[in-house]
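Example record used in the benchmark description.
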Amino acid sequence: MIRALIVDDELHAREEMEALLAETGTIEIVGSCGNGIDALKMINKLKPEVLFLDIQMPVINGFELLNMINADIMPHVVFVTAYDQYSLKAFEEKTLDYLLKPVDSDRLAKTIAKLQQTIVENRPPVYETEEILRIPCLLGNRIKLIGMLEVEYIATSPSGVNVVTAEHEYFTEVTLKVLEERSPLLRCHKQFLINVDSISEIILHEGGLAKIQTRSGKMIPVSRRYLKVIKKKLLL
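Model output (structure tokens):
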């Protein structure tokens, strides 16, 4: 059985896809969700083999979600969308396959066969990703998008990954590794990424250690491993 996650903001579409996949007898549905934040959380936790993903979703669309998935656990992706087939030709290199809504069971069978062959041949999913420009964060029952210009630094803690601005702190499901690889933020410590533009001062200590003071007065550590990188970026 192939482990699958369904992501679509329309409940009816998710239920219809669940029913169609159940009929194939080859797919185990490990989860279903209606937005990118919940999807990212489930991908990080459940590590599905395939994602049946809607493109047009509010706040975070399907392409933006792919940019936020760690390459080590990237599932195969099948877009399920109302885009016409001609528009989707441009997406073929970014996905295993695509299905047009309403999904036809015969067309789905071809997708499943393609997926099975890909897994048998042990071909890992490799999709072209772009720079993350906005970080989706949870704020109560809302999803707030934090632009990179607002970010002072990112920090990990036992509770997860926190996005810190001059005035607030937010929780995100995007990992530190992904943010380091796909954003302009720089690693300054194993638990911290810094926005270079938010640096007000670097305070040097003995032993090659340092601390960064941000423009809003917050202090974060810099390890000797990353101090040279920060200095080079600042042309010091």
